[in-house]
Design a protein that fits this description.
This protein is of the alpha+beta class. Helix content is 17%, strand content 28%. Helix 5 packs antiparallel against helix 6 and helix 7 packs parallel to helix 9. Pfam families: Ctf4_C, Mcl1_mid, WD40_WDHD1_1st.
């Protein structure tokens, strides 16, 4: 059978209908004076039964458990039994035509209206007992009963709604509402046939009515005022009929030939259906036990619409929050509310003890004073378990605060067989329902990097996510087919698509997300090299499944609560969950976690700042990579310091309620993304909740921090400072970027203007405070010039101190980088406590750990475990055949010249060791110690002491004099100041053991060619000045250097009295040769 079945059964004119209490049959009547009885489960081939007892057109029908009643133009209200098509009796009659018959919820009384200015309330058990409700100025068109049967709402032809209290023995008018409904007195006009009834909600706390302004309004029972309005840009024209679903979740309305179904909690249209074109729907009715809506129109057709509410929404029959709760009406709390008080309500007059209790009073006691979720609660509320009561009635306690169900960011419900699976800054996924399958269309905003596509979806995927490098889809389990995840990367090869099956029966996907690096090229090789990122799947088993971009399972992480939603970036996934249950004061109790893809560590974990009584609407990632959220309060928040563990905080950056464009407009905003300082969204008009088709354009709204003081310039500075701080937090080892520098310069310009204003006003503290916010040194100079211009000498000096402090301290960029390094540094592992003895008590001793604390790494204070040999131009590699050097030769530290006493003791110690046992340093290989050094004067001896520049340097002959003196075996001249030490020759022999030796002139000349020189007599006379000068010159020429001595120490030794003219050779053989010659 088709979803909509229309059958022409009555002639043109006013028609009416009603369902039986069990929903198995439907009664229709029209101008042809025939009542047809339809079996609801039958198709169009079914021939209905009919009743022709009426002598005139049928104007109204009503049903009870044991029968049904019809009202006719002839003024009679006839009663029929349940299983009989013949009339039982005439309940009552009027002189004028009957316009409405209404049976109360207890099936005891019936209200009958007519063109006469009165209403009859007749007892069905005793039709002679009639209560007259009089006082009208015109005829009464309709009457509806309150769910408690204590109130009766009547609508008159002159546009009044009169509320009667019929609980007392003598009914009285409780309230009269004027000017709300249209006044129609001409019974022949088409508007007179419209259903103007006031439809009571199942909670009994308010009713719905169509106004003369073509709107549907809600009237509260507490003060009889209008509390809300149902409006939609796609709904226009006069409202011709209203009907409420059995559980009060949905309200059906008819406008001309179209039927719209509204959510009573969100007051939004969730689906629509077109009736017979050109006709006016005169009455609507919901089936009391199935998902079925039926209506009759002015052409005499009877239409049945099966399953008007899709499976994505709660059932219209089963009990839910909206059944007993006033979700859309602010209820005034009763004083002295006692949750644990006994129910002492008395039954109404005429009721027996075993009769039904007053549902209105009981429900009011439950609902009054409680906070109920007013956004998306009814549309997603799970059906409540029905508990049997007396006579089959249901009385139950519902949840105080409805928990927000899981949702996918950027998705919408199915409306008119179309929906959005995803809508973000990358693109949009559109789905069209074709009954047996879906058509999925994927479009991208930047078509230079990604190419759109479409495909046929036979599994009817209900979840979608557009990532940077691929799209993810998920379908629910159906029959034997399990839930499945489909990943389609943005590549030209369909072979790269893969699926992930949730093999366990009954598991559903609650949310999906895909994170990857931004796509900057369409080259498939580059894309495959960088990978497709990571995919996260949330399931009904309270876990998160992490998959690689190629479908490889990586980790299944348990989630500590009910999953709500999530979004992913290139590095992490941002998950929202409910750690516990909702609270009694209206809080959703939501928490968030940021989980790294690389090592699955939790970077941040905290409570989501959703105010009490509100729900989360959207989460996303800004262009700077920071998490963002939007709730029903209309505020936008950004998570700052999200990369630094345990330092994150939510910053409010926008309040859509304070936008200038919203003043005087009824509009809302559907978030898409955040770029720079703009809020990307779709504009929703009126009471629209989701974007419709065709796809609207994305609007850019500038973000402004909602400061309470009107200071735009300061707000601009703080907003830019926030973005700069987020940019700094995203850096690794970089000091700054060009974008950050340009932003800081712009901020400094604004700060200079504020400093000028503070100086002009004489507010020195404010000027100093703003000066400290400057970033560049040049702007500090500009601030000092401004202070000098206004002759603020003290302020200028303080600014100079700020500048000096800035220059002396560590650079702010380096300081910020060091701080990031400290924050991002991994924490050391916790110390393990010593194991307690087996026989110890359960009490823990915090001082039981006697082990040393963990080692702190200090490279500068570490001990040297191996010798470090520095390579210089004086060092050489020792051949492998030589004896290892003594430790004294490896000592690279220079030693100061020893004193005379210490040298004498050392010489005595050296004589006790054989000469052959002393290992000498290796000879020089290639370096020439006498070669000219770079950047050094060739005429200057580095070991000589400084002389007058005017004095000429002559070649010394003292060397040959010393040789002759040695051959003549005369006592050599002692060095001045040598004291009683050994002679110089012996001292030189001893000194040769202490350092490297060099070849002298004796080692270079052959022995055979030795030329004897005449011996000179030693001069016993005291040395003259010339002799001393000659000796000094010879010392300047003959003294050689030691590897470990520096130039400065050599110059000091030349001037010291302990200096000795020591000549060094390369080997031990040369040492013995020099000794024999001397």
């Amino acid at each position: 059978m088709a979803d909509k079945l229309a059958i022409n059964t009555h002639g043109k004119g006013h028609t009416c209908m009603a369902f039986s209490k069990d929903g198995s049959r439907a009664f229709t009547g029209g101008k042809n004076a025939v009542i047809r009885i339809w079996t609801v489960s039958e198709g169009p081939e079914h021939e209905p039964a009919f009743v022709e007892d009426s002598g005139d057109a049928i104007t109204s029908l009503a049903t009870a458990d044991d029968g049904w009643i019809s009202g006719c133009l002839d003024g009679e209200a006839r009663r029929y039994s349940r299983f009989n098509s013949e009339m039982d009796t005439v309940v009552t009659s009027f002189v004028s035509p009957i316009r409405c018959v209404a049976i109360d919820p207890t099936d005891r009384r019936i209200a009958v209206t007519s063109d006469e200015p009165k209403v009859k309330v007749v007892e069905l058990e005793d039709t002679e007992r009639i209560v007259m409700l009089e006082g009208y100025a015109s005829g009464v068109r309709s009457a509806t009963w309150h769910p408690s049967s204590t109130l009766l709402a009547t609508c008159t032809s002159d546009g009044k709604i009169v509320i009667w209290n019929v609980a007392a023995e003598k009914p009285f008018i409780e309230k009269t509402l004027e000017g709300l409904i249209p006044a129609v007195k001409d019974s022949e006009s088409p508007e007179f046939s419209y259903d103007c009834s006031a439809v009571w909600h199942t909670s009994g706390q308010y009713f719905f009515v169509a106004t003369n302004g073509h709107e549907i309004v809600t009237i509260s029972r507490d003060d009889w005022t209008k509390t809300s309005t149902f409006s939609d840009k796609n709904v226009s024209g006069a409202v011709t009929a209203l009907a409420l679903s059995p559980n009060g979740v949905y309200l059906a309305s008819a406008s001309q030939s179209r039927v719209h179904i509204w959510s009573t909690q969100t007051r939004r249209v969730i689906t629509s259906q077109i009736g017979k074109p050109g006709s006016s729907i005169t009455q609507l009715a919901w089936s009391p036990n199935e998902n079925l809506l039926a209506w009759t129109d002015s052409d005499g057709a009877f239409t049945r619409w099966r399953k008007p509410i899709s499976d994505n929404f709660p059932d219209p029959v089963k009990g839910s929050m909206a059944t007993n709760g006033a979700a859309t009406i602010p209820v005034k709390p009763k004083t002295g509310l006692d949750l644990f008080a006994d129910d002492t309500e008395q039954v109404t007059t005429g009721e027996k003890e075993d009769d039904d209790v007053d549902l209105d009073d009981d429900i009011a006691d439950i609902d009054d004073g409680w906070i109920v979720d007013d956004m998306d609660g009814a549309l997603n509320a799970p059906p409540a378990e029905e508990k049997g009561g007396r006579n089959g009635l249901v009385k139950e306690m519902v949840s105080i605060t409805q928990a927000q169900p899981p949702f996918q960011p950027g998705s919408t419900p199915m409306e008119n067989k179309k929906r959005y699976l995803a809508y973000n800054m990358v693109g949009v996924i559109e789905v069209t329902d074709q009954d047996t399958h879906n058509i999925v269309n994927v479009e991208f905003f930047d078509r230079s990097l990604r190419k759109g596509y479409h495909f046929t979806d036979n599994f009817k995927h209900d979840l979608g996510y557009l990532g940077e490098r691929g799209a993810v889809f998920a379908c629910p389990p159906e029959n034997d087919h399990p839930a499945e995840v489909l990943f389609k990367p943005y590549s030209n090869w369909k072979a790269n698509d893969w699926t992930y099956t949730l093999s366990k029966k009954g598991i559903k996907c609650l949310g999906i997300a895909a994170g990857a690096l931004p796509l900057n090229s369409r080259n498939s090789a580059d894309v495959e090299l960088q990978g497709y990122g990571n995919i996260v799947v949330a399931t009904t088993e309270n876990d998160l499944t992490f998959l690689s971009g190629t479908g490889r399972e990586r980790r299944i992480m348990a989630l500590g609560g009910d999953f709500v939603t999530m979004v992913a970036s290139e590095e992490w996934v941002f998950v929202i969950h409910r750690a516990g249950s909702t609270t009694i004061d209206g809080s959703q109790n939501l928490s968030y976690s940021i989980i790294n893809f690389e090592d699955f560590t939790v970077r941040q974990r905290d409570v989501l700042p959703v105010p009490k009584g509100h729900t989360l609407k959207w989460i996303g990632v800004t262009d700077q990579g920071a998490p963002a959220m939007f709730d029903t309060t209309g505020c936008v928040h950004i998570l700052t310091k999200h990369r630094i563990p345990h330092h994150a905080s939510w910053a409010r950056v926008m309040d859509t309620n304070t936008l200038e464009r919203r003043q005087g407009k009824d509009e809302s905003y559907w978030p898409v993304g955040i770029t720079e300082s703009n809020f990307m969204c779709l504009i929703l008009k009126g009471r629209q909740e989701h974007p419709a088709f065709p796809r609207p354009l994305i609007q850019e709204l500038p973000m402004r921090i909602p400061f309470r003081q009107n200071s735009p310039q300061e707000e601009t500075i703080e907003r830019e400072a926030l973005h700069v701080q987020i940019a700094f937090d995203s850096l690794d080892d970089e000091l700054t970027t060009d974008d950050i520098i340009s932003r800081e310069k712009a901020m400094d310009k604004e700060l200079i203007q504020l400093i000028q204003g503070a100086c002009k006003a004489g507010n020195a503290p404010r000027a100093i405070e703003l000066t400290r916010l400057l970033h560049q040194i040049a702007t500090l100079d500009a601030a000092m010039k401004i202070a000098d211009f206004y002759h603020l000498v003290g302020l200028k000096e303080k600014m100079g101190m700020v500048k000096a402090d800035r220059e002396e301290n560590e650079d702010r960029l380096h300081s910020a980088r060091n701080k990031r390094r400290r924050w991002l540094k991994q924490e050391p592992p916790l110390r393990q406590l010593a194991e307690a003895p087996a026989a110890s008590s359960s009490r823990f001793d915090p001082l039981g750990d006697f082990r040393p604390p963990p080692v702190i790494e200090r490279p500068g204070m570490a001990r040297v475990t191996a010798p470090r040999i520095e390579t210089t131009r004086f060092t050489s590699h020792t051949p492998s055949s030589r004896t290892p050097e003594r430790a004294s030769w490896n000592d690279s530290a220079p030693r100061s010249p020893p004193s005379t006493d210490s040298k004498r003791k050392r010489d005595d110690l050296d004589e006790s060791f054989p000469t052959s046992d002393i290992s000498m340093p290796p000879p020089k290989q290639k370096p020439n110690p006498f070669a000219r050094k770079a950047n050094q004067d060739s005429n200057k001896n580095p070991f000589a002491r400084k002389l007058d520049a005017s004095k000429t340097i002559q070649k010394s002959e003292s060397f040959f004099d010393k040789v002759d003196a040695a051959e003549s075996e005369t006592v050599p001249r002692k060095r001045p100041g040598a004291g009683n030490g050994k002679d110089a020759a012996t001292l030189k022999g001893k000194d040769r053991k202490e350092g490297p030796k060099q070849a002298t002139l004796f080692g270079m000349l052959p022995k055979a060619d030795k030329v004897s020189r005449p011996k000179k007599q030693p001069d016993t006379a005291p040395p003259t000045a010339d002799t001393q000068e000659t000796q000094i010159d010879s010392q300047m020429t003959d003294v050689t250097t030691v590897e470990t001595e520096t130039q400065e120490e050599s110059q000091q030794r030349v001037g010291s009295p302990d200096w000795d003219e020591t000549q060094l050779v390369d080997a031990g053989d040369e040492s013995s040769m020099i000794t024999s010659e001397l």
